[in-house]
Amino acid sequence: MEKVKEDWASAYRKAKIELGREIHNIDIFDYNVAKFLLEFLKPGHLVLETGCGTGRFCFWLNKRGIS
Question: Mapping DSSP to helix (H, G, I), strand (E, B) and coil, where does residue 17 land?
């Protein structure tokens, strides 16, 4: 996950997107999506990131024990 964070930071630094803020905003602005994901995904589950969008949900899920 550290390599993914490094790659993410490198790619989005130019766009001035901050990972911490993006993760925090999920709880506020994407509450319904977050709630839906946590209904089905539990700690220990694996998720495949398909590269659509910023990847912020990957980091958000990882903070909850879902890789």
Answer: coil
Domains of the chain, residue spans: 2-62
- Residue 44, sorted as left (phi over 0), alpha (psi -120 to 50) or beta, turns out to be left
**Cβ–Cβ contacts within 10 Å for residue 26, how many?**
18
Structure tokens at 55: 């990847």
Query: In the chain, what are the helix, strand and coil shares in percent, each to the nearest 5?
Result: 60, 0, 40
Question: What are the C-alpha distances in Å from 47 to residues 10, 16, 17, 62?
Answer: 22, 26, 23, 10
2: confidence class by pLDDT, cuts 50, 70, 90? confident
- The per-residue pLDDT for range 22-51, each reduced to its tens digit, is 889 998 899 999 999 999 999 999 988 887
